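To assess whether the prediction recovers the assembly geometry, we first specified each molecular entity separately, as shown.
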Amino acid sequence: MHLRQLIQPDADWLDAPSPRRVARVALTACAGLAIYGFTVGFWRDPLMGGYVAVKLPLLIALTLGCNGLLNGLLGLLLGTGLGFRQSLLALLTSFALAALILGSLAPVTFFLAWNAPPPDSPGSKNAHAAYLVAHTALIGFAGITANLHLHRLLAVKAPTPAAATATLLAWLGGNGFLGAQFSWILRPFFGTPKLEVEFLRENPLDGNFYQTVWQAIDKTSGGHGLPALGVLLVFLLTPILHAIHKNHQTTPRP
Amino acid sequence: MIPQEIPNTAQPPPLEAPLPEKLDLKSLFEALLRRPHALVVRLAEPNHGATGRFAIMAVGSILLFGFVLGCFAKNEQLWAAPAKITAGLIFSGLICFPSLYIFATLAGARVSISQLAACLAGALALAGLLLLGFAPAVWIFAESTDSLGFMGSLAIGAWVIAVAFALRFLKSVIFATGGTQKAPLTIWSIVFLLVTLQMTTSLRPILGRSDVRLTQEKKFFLQHWGDTFGSSLKPQTAAKKPAPEPTAAPTPENPAGRNPYLEN
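The predicted structure of the complete assembly is given in tokenized form:
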């Protein structure tokens, strides 16, 4: 399998979800995420880089593993005509593309980590904040690109564009919802400078991503959490839905 | 000039293979997800034997989902929660079935009682399968949170999504058997959803803990949810303890001055 096949899939890419193809796409995703993950944790400590190189692929594996049945059911019920293995291949392809984008940027992010003020320096707080923003932007870009790519794949298989959109949104919702909680359980990724380097924080299952986000929004908005959350959701969802709507026109290379 | 005849190379759509003679669990599962219309037609024939298998599928998956919900409070809820939600769902299905038949007939469907019973069992099996799909995610949260409001919202959210697909299947049953009107099934769907939601209160506690296994106190489900939304499984004092600030000074309970909510 060439990388070009993954980035520019044929219209029949999902027709043959052989175990070999699924394994190769999964390996590509793991490799890309591991390389990128190493550069994410490297700034805090090389050992942290090693941990994140394991945890990023683990995050995807846990999310897709736990939601495998749900993704397959939704793929069938929402009318794309994709079976369980095809759904898995479609989602893995999307994650693999994100991993390829991030993996290809790994030399740049490694350079960023190499040149940032070290965690024990006086300017480490600002460096940590800038590091967070830079990586969030990169991950966001890779995620959006991968999902648009996934939508194109689905649009080729689905009988109607609406079915492809519904399936994409359902998968996005389900995997995003669980993936966020897994990212909470598997923290730390960036490594707060003052905290020790460890694979998982003490009692990783304690706490809940959504309650934490809610508390933060409520606190920063001075007790007006609900309207603030509404505005935030509108700002997040509008460009995503707009991009998906525009994407209905595009199909993969024949 | 003789116009050249262009050969018609378009392939006709592939014909669907008929459902197998014997409907085992696997073929029913496939048909439910991929070919609901063919399934409805097949269920109109006698001796399909699907009702029992759908019921097994529904009960098995709801029991498993109930066990996952029971993992939230643990102890006796590990068996009480699955038992309660399975009993509640069977009871809801039984008390709503007569109205389903009447409303389906009002919608114009020509469906026999046994066919409709098989279809309702199929719809509940579909809902159960979807709940099974949600189960791993629900378990992760059951192990991570103590908030009854959050877990309740999650469980109800999963149920509403699952039941939406089940009702969509019933809608296809009505239209595949000659039904022409949406309104009767829409009304029945609201009634069924309300009945199942009221079950969460009538059979309480399902998520939380209580000294009594089944309470006799009458309550409407919205009132019950409002009363318990802010509750936690932990004692009240522990639940209301504020999270330490990120730069908090070390304390005996928190020697490193760590705020787990701000770690990344």
